[in-house]
Amino acid sequence: MTLYSCVNPFAPKIDETLGEAKGLISDQSDVEGVFQNFQYAYAFKDTLIYSQLLNKDFSFSYRDYDIGADISWGRDEEMKVSSGLFQNSHRLDLVWNNINSISGDSTRIVRSFNLTIAFNPTDIIFIDGRVNLTLIKENNKWKILRWVDESNF
């Protein structure tokens, strides 16, 4: 008891080791940092981090199987859609799986993922899909230039 008498459990000492490990947010200096920040942005519903993933000329496209057409939009619309998803979901769990293909210069990556969207405890959607990303390096940061969603809904 006397050993702990001077330790205040409500004022623990600063953990000096926090800066030594790789943090939750990447500087996107490598391609894996893009995926790390993507996962972080979804988990914490962080539009600021998400916006930093997208190049100013970003485009998103997917196949709408109901109408039999490809749908596309740019960066501004992507931010609106993502913000709506972040605001209207209770929880987002994104898991990146294997890289299916990658170009030699890492500018084109196809990767599978699992996404769980919980709108409420009884409304949960599970998505298994694939992204086809075109990346570009600007100011020593990798950013997403084009995202083609190859998921089958």
Outline the structure in words.
With 153 residues, the chain is of the alpha+beta class. It has a single domain (31-149), classed as Nuclear Transport Factor 2, Chain: A (Roll). 21% of the residues lie in helices and 44% in strands. It has a six-stranded mixed β-sheet with strand order 2-1-6-5-4-3, with helices on one face. A hairpin with a 2-residue loop joins β5 (123-138) and β6 (141-149). The longest helix is centred in the middle third of the chain and has 14 residues, at 75-88. The radius of gyration is 19 Å and the shape is globular. The termini are far apart. The model has no long low-confidence stretch (mean pLDDT 90).
Provide a brief overview of the structure.
This protein is an alpha+beta fold and 153 residues long. It has helices at residues 31-43, 47-51, 75-88; strands at 54-64, 69-74, 91-102, 108-120, 123-138, 141-149.
What is the secondary structure topology, with strand pairs?
Elements: H1 31-43, H2 47-51, E1 54-64, E2 69-74, H3 75-88, E3 91-102, E4 108-120, E5 123-138, E6 141-149
Parallel strand pairs: 1-6
Antiparallel strand pairs: 1-2, 3-4, 4-5, 5-6
